[in-house]
Amino acid sequence: MMRRALDLARLGTGYARPNPLVGCVVTHEGRVIGEGWHRQYGGPHAEVNALASVADPTLLPHSRVYVTLEPCAHHGKTPPCADLLVSKNVAEVVVCNLDPNPLVAGKGIAKLEAAGIKVETGVLEPEGRWLNRRFFTFQEKKRPYVVLKWAETADGYLAGPYFQSVAISGELARVAVHQWRAEEQAILVGTRTALHDNPHLNLRAWPGQNPIRVVIDKNLSLPPTHHLFDGKQQTVVYTYREKATRDNVGYVVLSEAEDLFPQILNNLHLRNVQSVLVEGGPTVLNSLLKDGLWDEIRVLRSPKKLGGGVSAPKLGLAGLREQRHIGADELLVFVNEASR
């Protein structure tokens, strides 16, 4: 039943943010009588949708509710779910993960138990933490969840000589990249990638909400005619030079005396950005790798060879979580155990 609740929670990916992904299953004598998930930020929570789907509410006092995250205990955009469960007089609540948000953090469990509801916690806890890894990182580390992504050739290059842009991945892999963009709240590139590739950093091959574009342009050297400054989606430029915000493009001046990426991640945290997909070049990628400021790496390895060019970052096999093919390309997924 909890696995079903986790499956339901995943359906909110890209839409519930910055709220966590939550699924809920209501059972009576081992039979599912209601299901729901948090479909969209600002909308009803999973418990509300699941309880509303129960055809016979008279069964609720004898029901068991499975929910992937501790029911909220505070008034946000919606009333507390813990209060709703109490008002329905459910018999038992089974929880996957406790909520690290200080506004909840055990208060939801306490409300349920004070009302005489039996509570069990920690069911499939590791799976729940992985599902909501962005939310947990944001709450616990006070920074966004950082995903590094790059495509490399079989001989270890991610661009041609002098950063010449080269089509490395196949069509299926490119679709997967757009899906990843839909799943993360922001997407980041450095100056050189922005200059040479002139990317849109939007969704064209997958449905969903365009991510916030994050650009590093220390000296404001990027041409204003580039796609990143077209005003079609929210864009944040991190720089050392003053410039006024215009056309949906904001400029944040950083200190040259402090390390660059801690400042950027701290500012994104203040903006309530829970995750960022880094599609930068080797300078950005290697800096984040060196500082350990990453949580996940996704490498698309093509069977193509270039014979020379800009080298991709070098990785061993430490932290390898997943290895599979997307079309002709091999996907390698790594997790940073030191940051968990």
Automatic annotation (TrEMBL):
It comes from Hymenobacter telluris. It comes from the Bacteria. CDD domains: Riboflavin_deaminase-reductase (cd01284). InterPro entries: APOBEC/CMP_deaminase_Zn-bd (IPR016192), CMP_dCMP_dom (IPR002125), Cytidine_deaminase-like (IPR016193), DHFR-like_dom_sf (IPR024072), Eubact_RibD (IPR004794), RibDG_C (IPR002734), Riboflavin_Biosynth_HTPR (IPR050765). Pathway: Cofactor biosynthesis; riboflavin biosynthesis; 5-amino-6-(D-ribitylamino)uracil from GTP: step 3/4; Cofactor biosynthesis; riboflavin biosynthesis; 5-amino-6-(D-ribitylamino)uracil from GTP: step 2/4. One of its GO terms (molecular function) is diaminohydroxyphosphoribosylaminopyrimidine deaminase activity. PANTHER family: 2,5-DIAMINO-6-RIBOSYLAMINO-4(3H)-PYRIMIDINONE 5'-PHOSPHATE REDUCTASE (PTHR38011:SF7), DIHYDROFOLATE REDUCTASE FAMILY PROTEIN (AFU_ORTHOLOGUE AFUA_8G06820) (PTHR38011). One of its GO terms (biological process) is riboflavin biosynthetic process. The keyword Transport does not apply. SUPFAM superfamilies: Cytidine deaminase-like (SSF53927), Dihydrofolate reductase-like (SSF53597). NADP(+) binds at residues 151, 193, 197, 281-287. Zn(2+) binds at residues 45, 72, 81. Binds 1 zinc ion. It catalyses: 5-amino-6-(5-phospho-D-ribitylamino)uracil + NADP(+) = 5-amino-6-(5-phospho-D-ribosylamino)uracil + NADPH + H(+); 2,5-diamino-6-hydroxy-4-(5-phosphoribosylamino)-pyrimidine + H2O + H(+) = 5-amino-6-(5-phospho-D-ribosylamino)uracil + NH4(+). The active site is at 47 (proton donor). Substrate binds at residues 165, 181, 201, 204, 279. This is Riboflavin biosynthesis protein RibD. The gene is ribD. Converts 2,5-diamino-6-(ribosylamino)-4(3h)-pyrimidinone 5'-phosphate into 5-amino-6-(ribosylamino)-2,4(1h,3h)-pyrimidinedione 5'-phosphate. The lineage of its organism: Bacteria, Pseudomonadati, Bacteroidota, Cytophagia, Cytophagales. Keywords: Hydrolase, Metal-binding, Multifunctional enzyme, NADP, Oxidoreductase, Riboflavin biosynthesis, Zinc. In the N-terminal section; belongs to the cytidine and deoxycytidylate deaminase family. In the C-terminal section; belongs to the HTP reductase family. Its cofactor is Zn(2+). Its EC number is 3.5.4.26, 1.1.1.193. Residues 1-120 form the CMP/dCMP-type deaminase domain.
